[in-house]
Design a protein that fits this description.
Elements lengths: L2 H13 L11 E3 L2 E4 L2 E5 L12 H14 L14 H14 L3 E5 L2 H12 L5 E5 L4 H10 L2 E5 L4 H11 L4 E6 L11 H11 L2 E5 L21 E5 L9 E5 L3 H8 L1 H4 L6 H15 L2 H20 L4 E2 L4 E7 L1 H13 L2 E2 L1 E3 L9 E6 L6 H17 L2
The chain binds pyridoxal-5'-phosphate.
């Protein structure tokens, strides 16, 4: 009954150059991934500090899973509320300077479980148009009225607020944008927050661990609530939400994804504690990422490739979706994996190559990649 529709819609995806089919990875080896018989340098990983690839973290995780087992056995609200999980959450809250924290099985689930619960009909939610799909989904499920503002444009946010902010109002943004790679205008948002007193939720998924003192991100002055994922710079999986007093209790009572889903096991909480320390101590890695990311951006610029991004996420504008995919496929043959981000991940007609820099990349990797990209870019229509 549905098969015909599925077939037609997939055919349209193909026609528009938007068909998605994940690259199968046989194995990961540090900065490399092996796909088929090719071993390629991975410029598509969010394991920014390289911790996920490190034997130190793998050993700690293995020990924790051996000690505590691999399941919590139930949701947090049934029999999964282990003191070790609560202790790890307290430590995350303390570390980042918030009252409370709560873990979720992923960043996607965190945004969905948080935003769909905090807001309701009668509220207004203003959001940066480039926020992650999980936040958009959470906002739409909440029932609140929602208003997108132009990416990182505080004057447009203010205009939206003046027209629609005559009720309980929240602003949702990221601190380091996942595709554009640019930083939130923290000072601008803070100024508006002081002026209008709205509630601010900031997703620091790509900043925590890599940016700011001890990897503490950039938005603590403005974020009433912050979201971090453990699946990027923290090298494991899962996510944490940093909260003011009273909100955790509210989520335990009203957040469906939290109430009705098996919680991550104690072994995860133990590993999250281990990795928090490793991240805080990764000062040299953060310095190095800054250096190697700048080196990549400058090298791309010198090669005449238009690039945006203020930190370790860089994006090379391609425009046409099908072309971005072709370039990515050709680069695999030259020894590099770089992700072609297409609509709806980015706006229609604005396909990019999204380059994720990590502490594992070297200047030699960058030089070889830029040379390969330049050659492929010129030869691909
Ligand atoms: C800004 C942002 N928030 C949340 C997520 C989701 O995090 P996770 O991968 O842990 O589900 C992502 C993932 O790409 C992201 O880019």
């Amino acid at each position: 009954m549905f098969a015909e529709r599925f077939k037609n819609r997939l055919a349209v995806q193909h026609e528009n150059g938007l068909y998605r089919s994940p690259l199968e990875i046989n194995q990961r080896d540090g900065k490399y991934v092996v796909s088929g018989n090719r071993r390629v340098v991975n410029f598509s990983s969010n394991d920014y500090l390289g911790l996920g690839a490190s034997s130190e973290l793998r050993k700690k995780a293995a020990d924790n899973f051996f000690k505590y087992g691999a399941t919590s056995g139930s949701s947090r609200l049934v029999s999964g509320n282990y003191s070790l999980i609560a202790r790890a959450e307290k430590e995350y809250a303390r570390h980042f300077g918030y009252d409370e924290a709560v873990f979720f099985p992923s960043g996607y689930q965190a945004n969905l479980g948080l935003l769909s619960t905090l807001f309701e009909k009668g509220d207004a939610v203003m959001f940066d148009k480039h926020i992650h799909a999980s936040s958009v989904k959470g906002i739409t499920l909440s029932g609140a009225a929602f208003f997108g503002y132009r990416h990182n444009t505080m004057s447009h946010l203010e205009k939206r607020y003046k027209a629609n902010g005559n009720c309980r109002t929240a602003v949702i943004t990221e601190s380091l944008f996942s595709m554009d790679g640019d930083f939130l205008d923290v000072a601008g948002l803070l100024e508006l927050k002081k002026k209008y007193g709205f509630f601010a939720v900031v997703d620091e998924a790509h900043a925590f661990g890599v940016v700011g003192r001890k990897g503490m991100g950039i938005a603590s002055d403005v974020a009433d609530i912050a979201i971090g994922t453990l699946g990027k710079a923290f090298g494991i999986f899962g996510a944490f939400v940093l909260l003011p007093e009273g909100v955790k209790e509210y989520l335990f009572n009203f957040s469906s994804p939290l109430i009705y889903s098996t919680t991550l096991p104690e072994a995860h909480a133990a590993t999250a504690l281990d990795v928090l320390e490793m991240v805080a101590d990764s000062h040299n890695k953060r310095e190095y990422i800054r250096h190697i990311s700048r080196y990549m951006k400058e090298s791309l610029g010198k090669a005449g490739l238009e690039t945006t991004g203020d930190a370790h996420i860089l994006s090379v504008l391609i425009g046409d979706a099908a072309r971005s995919k072709k370039i990515s496929v050709k680069l695999l043959d030259k020894g590099f994996y770089v992700f072609p981000a297409r609509y709806p991940t980015v706006p229609s007609g604005k396909a990019i190559l999204r380059i994720g820099m990590t502490a594992l990349h070297t200047e030699k990797d960058v030089n070889r990649f830029v040379q390969a990209l330049r050659a492929v870019y010129d030869k691909t229509e």
